[in-house]
Amino acid sequence: MQSEPRIAFRNIEPSEAVENHVRRRIGELEKVYPRIVGCEVVIEAPQRKKLAGRSFKVHVKVEVPGPNIDVTRSVDYGETSENVSLAVHEAFDAAGRLLLERKRETSGH
Fold this sequence. Notes:
Blueprint: E1 6-10, H1 16-32, E2 38-44, E3 56-63, E4 69-75, H2 80-107
Parallel strand pairs: 1-2
Antiparallel strand pairs: 2-3, 3-4
């Protein structure tokens, strides 16, 4: 990757554990698609607090040659820590699938 990944937290306290999870998932994407130029991840919580659990939205922008890969996933049930991890997981899984598809398209298979 040509530039350092950018990880931002909005309406949620930054978490070293979540940031490490995101960095690990970025590393997995680089193994799938080594031509990644940069990556931006935004982890966002709504401003209003719910009585039970919180919803989270994770946006992953993977900068690659050609059109960038943009994925947003939301999770809004269960415990807070589970929601953040699940939203990160779902967003990176979707980005990985799109990168695999791009890899197949560019290799002609």
